[in-house]
Amino acid sequence: MSSSSFDPGAHRFMSPATGMVLEYIVHRPAGISNDNVRRKFIMAQCPGWGIGSGYLQRGLSDLWAPSSKSDNDTEATAYTVVFLHP
Fold this sequence. Notes:
The chain is 7% helix and 28% strand. It is mostly beta strands.
């Protein structure tokens, strides 16, 4: 588990009031500074019936690791993406 809540990787947060644990995975572009992490931010929620977020992480990987420039030949936009685990 990482030390910063927006570092890439798996994280856990426990509510002191309820004891509930929230697990989430962060993906973000390589080399992005901590100051810019929250500027382009997307949160993805997988279904709660057990499929997990693996299919979303594979399918949405171009959001944090764009494979090429966009159609209008400008720099592709990269995001910090957080996948919640129900």
